């Protein structure tokens, strides 16, 4: 019969042709692990190689058995482990069983991850879809935000322009009374100037009219005097050959400027 260790977790270590069983507590295992701390460096390397091979065997065996893990080891390898560890056969088998349990626990833990790992692609696809939808919504929101910003800037610009125009109107209204007073004053000055011009024009026209009437009166008076003189000569039956009949000698004596009478006096005298 070979050497074998079966634990509560249904892990099994098989060595050679013989089978055996051993039950030990966790404290006993910890004590056995502490006893192996004095090994040499060369023995540690060889021990790790053998234990690594056994761990690989237990991992491959765990894929085929869900509840039982078997570790196959030759009798020679088992003896080498016993010699390197300085432990008894049962202690080495207990350690191998502990390693098998750890491998089984790791396999079961990885097996529990399998559904979650299988659901990752579907979850990733859904996440990508939601991400695309979110990006599309963000793009629309960004466009709406930019449009709103442009509208706000346009409204602010129009408000600034209207405020500037309102200030200009207020300034004009503030200066309006002053300008109105200046315009009234200027209008009064223009009215005075117009009155003066009209007076000058009236005076000038009066003088021109007076001079024109004077010249006309002298002409009319001369003609009237000649006609009256001729009629008087005709009534007196004066000979036509006399010098009194000569018209060029019949004239009104010219008055000097100092002796000229006003127009209305000349008219009255005539």
Report on the structure:
By secondary structure, the chain is mostly helical. Among the domains are: 3-123, no CATH class; 228-269, no CATH class. It has helices at 26-35, 41-62, 75-85, 89-236, 263-269; strands at 3-6, 11-15, 69-73. It has a 3-stranded mixed sheet with strand order 1-2-3. It is rod-shaped and about 205 Å long.
- Specify the biggest β-sheet: 3 strands, mixed
Strand content: 5-15%
Strand order of the largest sheet: 1-2-3
Assembly type of the chains comes to: single chain
Distance between the termini: 190 Å
Proportion of helical residues: over 70%
Order of helices and strands: EEHHEHHH
General form: rod-shaped
Can you give the mean pLDDT?
68
The Cα radius of gyration reads: 74 Å
Quantity of strands, as a count: 3
Which structural class do the helices and strands define?
mainly alpha
Low-confidence stretches: 1-69, 255-270
Tally of DSSP helical segments: 5
Question: Which terms summarize this structure?
Answer:
270 residues; mainly alpha; three-stranded mixed sheet; 5 helices; 73% helix; disordered N terminus; disordered C terminus; P-loop_NTPase
SSE arrangement:
Layout: E1 3-6, E2 11-15, H1 26-35, H2 41-62, E3 69-73, H3 75-85, H4 89-236, H5 263-269
Parallel strand pairs: 2-3
Antiparallel strand pairs: 1-2
């Amino acid at each position: 019969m070979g050497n074998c260790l079966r634990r509560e977790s249904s892990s099994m270590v098989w060595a050679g042709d013989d089978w055996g069983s051993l039950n030990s507590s966790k404290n006993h295992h910890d004590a056995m692990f502490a006893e192996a701390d004095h090994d040499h460096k060369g023995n540690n390397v060889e021990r790790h190689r053998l234990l690594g091979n056994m761990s690989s065997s237990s991992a491959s065996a765990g894929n085929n058995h869900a509840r039982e893990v078997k570790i196959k080891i030759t009798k020679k390898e088992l003896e080498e482990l016993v010699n390197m560890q300085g432990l008894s056969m049962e202690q080495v088998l207990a350690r191998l069983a502990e390693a098998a349990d750890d491998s089984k626990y790791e396999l079961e833990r990885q097996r529990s991850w399998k559904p979650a790992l299988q659901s990752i692609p579907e979850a990733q696809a859904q996440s990508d879809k939601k991400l695309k939808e979110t990006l599309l919504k963000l793009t629309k929101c960004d466009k709406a935000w930019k449009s709103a910003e442009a509208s706000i800037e346009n409204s602010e610009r129009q408000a600034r322009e209207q405020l500037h125009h309102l200030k200009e109107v207020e300034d004009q209204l503030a200066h309006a009374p002053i300008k109105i007073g200046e315009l009234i004053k200027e209008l009064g000055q223009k009215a005075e100037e117009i009155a003066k011009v009209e007076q000058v024009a009236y005076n000038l026209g009066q003088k021109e009219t007076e001079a024109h009437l004077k010249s006309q009166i002298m002409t009319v008076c001369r003609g009237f005097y000649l006609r009256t003189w001729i009629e008087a000569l005709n009534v007196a039956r004066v000979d036509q050959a006399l010098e009194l009949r000569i018209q060029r000698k019949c004239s009104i004596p010219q008055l000097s400027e100092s002796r000229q009478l006003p127009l209305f006096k000349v008219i009255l005298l005539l």
